[in-house]
Design goal:
The complex is a heterodimer of chains A (300) and B (723).
Chain A lengths: L6 H13 L17 E2 L3 E7 L11 H7 L3 E6 L5 E7 L13 H18 L3 E8 L2 E4 L6 H13 L9 H9 L7 E6 L5 H13 L3 E8 L1 H5 L6 E5 L5 E4 L1 H25 L3 E6 L4 H20 L1
Parallel strand pairs in A: 4-5, 4-7, 7-8, 8-11
Antiparallel strand pairs in A: 1-3, 2-3, 5-6, 9-10
Chain B lengths: L1 E2 L13 H11 L2 E5 L2 H37 L2 E4 L3 H4 L4 E7 L7 E2 L2 E2 H16 L7 E6 L3 E7 L1 H10 L10 H15 L5 E7 L3 H4 L5 H10 L3 E6 L8 E8 L3 E3 L4 E9 L5 E9 L2 E10 L4 E8 L5 E9 L9 E9 L2 E7 L10 H9 L7 E6 L14 E5 L6 H12 L3 E5 L6 H11 L3 E3 L3 E2 L6 E4 L17 H4 L5 E2 L2 E3 L7 E7 L10 E6 L6 E5 L14 H14 L10 E2 L4 E5 L3 E7 L5 E4 L1 H4 E4 L2 E7 L6 E10 L5 E11 L12 H7 L4 E4 L15 E3 L1 H27 L1
Helix pairs in contact in B: 1-2, 2-16, 4-5, 6-8, 10-11
Classes of the chains: A alpha/beta (300), B alpha/beta (723).
Chain lengths: 300, 723
């Protein structure tokens, strides 16, 4: 299994940088105006009020005139901070192939922080262990901090059980400054919990991005022989003929995925599903490119 | 339901194999640590019932298929299974037991008629399909293949059969014929042999040849069904024995007859028996007869007319008619013609042996023996033409013509008694004994001191000693003093030599006792008796004891008479033969119903030395009294009419209708033979025939359907689950 500091991974990241040269704008903050919104900056625009918005930003005059709740947005002069919340709970250790979801998410974290480091942005990593969260290292910037971060990521021991949404919510309370928050998780908990955490991030002025890391086996359920499925986060054992339950499982899985996507989008969150058999750079580049294009269209 | 291969049922537990395999399969599984457990848990909950039902359905199909496959291998049979279900055509070989017991009628229908009708129905059901062949074999007195090949012809032959025979059934022969027929059918549909029988004990128990015959059939792979067509209730009362004290008697003599009647049924019954002499009733008896009990009756009758006389016992008719009467034939003669050859005493001399014997045997005109006395030197063949017995009463030396006449007489079956007295010893008899090839050493006269020798009975069964079976009369023979005698020593190598009396002497051990009376059967025929102690006042005191000597001599002479013209009785199936002294020129035979059959005498007559044997019929087909009117050619060219009679009787074993015990049958039957049906009807209404149908084919078809359904269902489920 490649490590986060593996030369091959670093080469991939280099390729990622080249291929994503135009796509990383969404993660850049220092050399460009931040798209993050703040409360102590120059007025930028009005937008519809969404639940969780600071009521102090409500434009009372407009409300009185138009009878519509409109909030005022301001441009923030501070540089961008990239927060990566990495779900390291036991469910992330599932691996039907050479590497686990956690491995994949760790590489993604390394890649994203690398981009931030390359662009002189601050970055920090939080570890969500089930329903709990802790910082991996204090936020920082630069090549050296990135190396420390990667080394720390490689030493991470998975652990923790429970609703990952609660873990994200817990992390949200620990972020000291606003920024882009990338949640790397399998998000197998209740969609409403994840949506609540994302709304809370939004409320605190963060720009949440959910990168849902899944193993293809979880998505396609390819098993044929009688199998005993053993819960990674509990003692449950289920022995069954996978072929008999496959349809029902996929229906449950897709229903959950649809609900999660709907709720996250409703909460104003970017969402992308990454499958661990997908080339990391391809998935990330595609996601970042689309995000960049969308942000540009909003900026025009 | 019955099974032709019941041992296959031991494989029935194999029906549990699908369940066992299912359980074992579930015990072998992969382990996968799993993250999205909640979805899986919910999916399992949603599908649990459906999966259970699908698994149950598959398991049921598989288990049923294996179960039915095992049952099919056990070759089950059932009654009344529609032909459409049993399927393909067989080559059907029908074997019908045609023995006497199959004539037993219940509800007005005999077992044989039931067998015939059921065989016809079986033929219609199983062979009608294209390609089926058939054959019909009957097991009567001889096994006979009546038809083979086209089922239509076999059916026609079947319907021509009216009733079973009156004798034993050659079932083993019939099965052998079926086996040969089956060999010829092996290129077509599989042959099956169906035996319709009453499974009577006499034919199906003990060391019956039927079982090896069945073994040979099943060894070919031929399925054999035994269809029991016997009635459930098989009561029968039969005359199983009917015998006479004599086969030949003199007119006016009393004939003693013994009958034994047996009740083979399970119910007590009253039996009435009537005895007939040539159709005229002369006695009647009645007696209650307990189940499985027999009664013995004795009768006596004194036939007045000479000739062959039929004596018959009849009892009341029951469900098996043929054994309700039994006849025998006795020969009644005016007197037994005896030629006494001996030299009478000259005047003034003591009586000779010839005189003594004549005194006992020649009792006048109406006596039972018609004695003609001839001097030894004048004895010729003409003297012996009409004689039955010749008594050589111490004749002294015999000349060549006399020896020649005696040899021819013996060759005709005559009997010769040689009384060995002072004049006749080994030297005098040597030409006769040498010519007859008889070796008996005759000793010189042996005188004994007081206490003198006596006779001892060596062979109490000899007919000459019939009177002395009563121990009260025995001393009249065995305590008569014998002063002088001629000891006899037969050749131990001569198996025909029969020592009837021995000499008993004081102080001499029994194993050294010399023979006193020896009977031998010369190779050329007839019987010869040598007697070393004939009545002679010079040698013994037999003349003084006529109470013992007379019956002894009479019975001895009677015992030497030739066999009667016909046997007392013959069993159904035996030839009808007569021993004649003159050649027949014309014979007309009549069966018990009076139907006449001319006999081709040129084919029926055999000359055996001096004897003439007439075979009027090769095989008597039915019981009763058969008659023949014969014309015999006399030496002078004239013809003499002679009435012949034969008593034909049923085999007593056939009267016991009881079926063989199932356990006994099961033990003896080879594998591959099934017994079908529990008997016929005994009521007025005849239930439909209950024939066993082989369900194997049907079961195999169901197994095929089940496996097909299982395969389709499994494929469907697998495909659905793969999606």
């Amino acid at each position: 299994m490649p490590r986060a500091s593996d030369p091959r991974l670093l080469a991939r990241l280099a390729r990622l940088e080249l291929r994503a040269r135009t796509a990383v704008e969404g993660l850049q903050g220092g050399r460009h105006q931040s798209r993050a919104r703040g409360s102590s900056a120059t007025f930028a625009q009005h937008r519809e009020y969404v639940p969780g918005d600071d009521l102090r930003r409500l434009d009372w005059k407009l409300l009185a005139r138009t009878d519509r709740p409109i909030v005022r947005e301001y441009e923030e002069e501070t540089s961008l901070t990239l927060w990566v919340v990495l779900d390291v709970s036991r469910s992330m250790t599932f691996a039907d192939q050479e590497w686990s979801k956690l491995d994949y998410a760790t590489w993604a974290a390394a890649a994203l922080t690398r981009l931030a480091a390359d662009q002189q942005d601050r970055f920090g990593v939080f570890l969500a262990r089930g329903e709990d969260a802790e910082p991996l290292l204090p936020a920082g910037s630069g090549e050296g901090h990135w190396a420390e971060t990667v080394a720390a990521l490689e030493a991470v021991e998975p652990g923790g059980v429970g609703d990952p949404g609660l873990g994200l919510e817990r992390a949200a309370g620990l972020l000291e400054r606003r920024g882009i928050v990338v949640w790397l998780s399998d998000a197998l908990g209740p969609p409403e919990s994840a949506a609540r955490a994302v709304a809370r991030l939004r409320h605190r002025g963060h720009d949440p991005i959910v990168l849902r890391v899944l193993d293809p086996a979880e998505v396609h359920f390819p098993y044929r022989r009688i199998t005993q499925f053993e819960d990674l986060e509990g003692e449950d054992r289920l022995r069954l003929d996978p072929r008999a339950v496959r349809d029902a499982y996929l229906a449950e899985f897709e229903a959950h995925a649809r609900e999660l996507r709907r709720r996250l989008r409703q909460a104003g969150c970017e969402f992308r599903r990454l499958e661990t058999d997908e080339a990391l750079e391809v998935g990330l580049v595609e996601f970042l490119s689309r995000r960049s294009a969308r942000l540009r269209s909003i900026g025009r | 339901m019955s099974f032709a291969a019941p041992w296959m049922l031991w494989a029935l537990p194999a029906a549990a194999l699908p369940v066992v395999i299912h359980l074992l399969r579930r015990r072998r599984f992969d382990r996968v640590p799993w993250a999205a457990m909640e979805f899986l848990r919910r999916a399992a909950r949603r599908t649990r019932r459906r999966v259970l039902l699908e698994d149950l359905l598959l398991l049921t199909l598989r288990t049923a298929a294996v179960l039915l496959a095992v049952l099919a291998l056990a070759r089950p049979g059932a009654e009344e299974v529609p032909k459409l279900l049993t399927g393909a055509a067989h080559s059907e070989i029908l074997v019908l037991d045609a023995s006497l017991s199959m004539r037993h009628a219940a509800g007005g229908v005999s077992a044989f008629e039931r067998a015939r009708d059921r065989a016809a129905e079986l033929l219609d059901e199983s062979v009608a399909a294209e390609g089926g062949r058939a054959a019909l074999v009957t097991a009567g007195l001889v096994a006979e293949r009546r038809a083979a090949g086209d089922p239509g012809e076999v059916r026609a032959a079947l319907l021509e059969l009216s009733e079973a025979g009156f004798g034993r059934g050659d079932l083993a022969g019939a099965l052998e014929a079926a086996r040969r027929t089956a060999e010829g059918f092996l290129d077509g549909p599989p042959p099956r042999v169906t035996v319709f029988t009453d499974l009577q004990t006499a034919a199906w128990a003990g060391e019956s040849e039927v079982f090896p015959a069945l073994q040979r059939l099943t060894a070919m792979g031929v399925a054999v069904d035994l269809v029991d067509v016997g009635a459930p209730v098989r009561d029968n009362v039969a005359v199983v024995e009917w015998s006479a004290s004599r086969r030949r008697l003199v007119r006016g003599d009393v004939l003693e007859l013994t009958a034994r009647v047996r009740n083979f049924g399970d119910r007590e019954t009253a039996v009435v028996g009537e005895a007939y002499l040539d159709g005229d009733r002369f006695a009647r008896r009645s007696e209650p007869l307990a189940p499985d009990a027999s009664v013995e009756w004795t009768f006596s009758v004194s036939p007045e007319a000479a000739g062959l006389r039929a004596v018959e016992l009849r009892i009341g008719h029951d469900a098996l008619l043929a054994d309700d009467a039994r006849a025998l034939v006795v020969e009644v003669v005016e007197a037994v013609p005896v030629v006494l050859v001996g030299e009478p005493a000259r005047p003034g001399h003591p009586p000779t042996v010839a005189d003594s014997l004549a005194g006992f045997l020649d009792l006048g005109e109406d006596a039972p023996l018609g004695v003609a006395q001839v001097r030894p030197g004048r004895l010729s063949a003409r003297d012996l033409e009409d004689a039955d017995v010749v008594v050589l009463a111490d004749p002294g030396p015999l000349d060549a013509p006399a020896v020649e006449a005696l040899i021819r007489f013996l060759g005709r079956g005559g009997g010769v008694l040689v009384a060995l007295g002072p004049e006749t010893g080994a030297l005098e008899l040597e030409p006769l004994l040498r010519a007859l090839d008889v070796t008996v050493e005759i000793g010189s006269p042996l005188a004994t001191e007081a206490p003198h020798a006596r006779l001892a009975i060596a062979d109490p069964d000899h007919p000459a000693l019939r009177f002395f079976t009563d121990p009260r009369w025995r001393p009249l023979l065995t305590e008569v003093p014998i002063r002088t005698f001629r000891p006899l020593r037969p050749d131990p190598a001569d198996a025909s030599a029969r020592v009837v009396l021995r000499f008993r002497r004081e102080g001499a051990p029994d194993d050294e006792a010399e023979a006193a009376l020896v009977e031998v059967t010369p190779p050329g025929g007839g019987r010869l008796v040598l007697y070393g102690a004939p009545p002679d006042p010079r040698w013994n005191r037999f003349e003084e004891v006529p109470g013992g000597t007379l019956p002894f001599l009479f019975d001895l002479v009677f015992a030497l008479t030739p066999p009667p013209t016909v046997p007392a009785a013959v069993e159904v199936g035996a030839p009808l033969e007569a021993r004649l002294t003159r050649p027949p020129t014309e014979v007309v035979l009549r069966d018990p119903d009076g139907t006449a059959f001319p006999v081709r005498t040129e084919l029926a007559v055999t000359e055996e030395g001096e004897r003439i044997r007439l075979r009027a019929l090769d095989r008597a087909s039915r019981p009763g009294v058969w008659r023949a009117d014969a014309r015999l050619l006399e030496p002078d060219g004239s013809e003499l009419e002679r009435a012949l009679r034969w008593a034909v009787v049923t085999p007593p074993a056939e009267s016991d209708l009881r079926p063989v015990l199932p356990a006994v049958l099961a033990e003896r039957l080879p594998d591959g033979v099934r017994v079908v049906g529990s008997g016929g009807d005994d009521g007025a209404e005849s239930p439909p025939p209950q024939l066993r149908a082989d369900l194997s084919l049907l079961l195999w078809r169901v197994v095929l359907v089940l496996f097909g359904a299982e395969t389709l269902l499994a494929a469907f489920l697998d495909r659905r689950r793969r999606r």
